[in-house]
Amino acid sequence: MAASSKSSQKAKNVVICLLTLWSLISLIIIVVWATSPDWKGAAQCNAELRDAKEKLVGSRSMWEQNKKALEEKVEKERNEVERRAAEILLLLGHLNATNTSLVDCRQEVVVLNGNVSIMQQKVEQLQQTEANLTAQLSQQEELIASLQNNVTQSFYQTEACRKMQDAAQSNMMAAQSQTRACEVEQQHLNRQLLKCKSLTPEMPQEKTAAPSSHCIPPKTGSAPPPLASLPAVLLLICGALHLIT
């Protein structure tokens, strides 16, 4: 910016110097021409002087116009330089802000890289945890399958025990019914025995055996003993209760 301002000022000074030098040379030529009576007449000299003055006035007006144009151009260039300087300052401000933002972005990139590393470590930890949980899940599934198998076996064992209990209860009820029948039969036999004993003194001694044999009903000799199956039934009941408990 300073170099362009100096160059415009230098050009302006050179133009002004050239115009001043041209004016001085013109005046010198006019003066020399006017002071030489031997060469030209007075009228011609006056005419030439007027022409020279007119040319001088024209040159001066042209010089003023050129000077004004140059000053306007210099002013315009100065304004342009100032505008460019302001734009450069603005661009420098933007550049500084951009550099600051770039530094911040670099710091953010460093932080993000650190966060990415931490996230990668967390991902690896989560993958390891997932693998461990998968292994534990497989073990749990195997345990669940084993427990389901045990539950199924226990269910079937429970059903078998229930069936055995029902069978034992049926056998026990049958045994109780048979016991009541035996008790009734025993009471009947006791009554028959008492009846036979009551008739024994009136008969001879050698015939005592015959009536007693007639007192016993024929079906008792062929029937199985009423309490013969009771121990086996009780054993089955005890075994079933042991399996249930």
Secondary structure layout plus pairing:
Blueprint: H1 2-34, H2 42-199, H3 209-215, H4 218-222, H5 230-244
Describe this protein's structure.
By secondary structure, the chain is an all-alpha fold. Among the domains are: 2-94; 156-198 and 225-245. It has helices spanning 2-34, 42-199, 209-215, 218-222, 230-244. Helix 1 (2-34) packs antiparallel against helix 2 (42-199) and helix 2 (42-199) runs antiparallel to helix 5 (230-244). The longest helix has 158 residues, at 42-199. The chain is rod-shaped and about 220 Å long. 1% of the residues are buried.
Ranges with pLDDT <50 over ≥5 residues? 202-228
Which geometry do the CA atoms define? rod-shaped
**Structural class by SSE content:** mainly alpha
Rg from Cα:
74 Å
Indicate the mean pLDDT.
76
What's the N-to-C terminus distance?
Answer: 110 Å
Count every helix, treating DSSP H or I runs of 4 or more residues as helices.
Answer: 5
Approximately what portion of the residues adopt beta-strand conformation? under 5%
Strand-and-helix sequence, N→C? Answer: HHHHH
The amount of helix comes to: over 70%
Largest sheet: none
- What is the count of β-strands? 0
Core attributes:
mainly alpha, single chain, rod-shaped, 0% strand, 89% helix, 245 residues, 5 helices
In short:
Helix content is 89%, strand content 0%. It is an all-alpha fold and 245 residues long. Helix 1 runs antiparallel to helix 2.
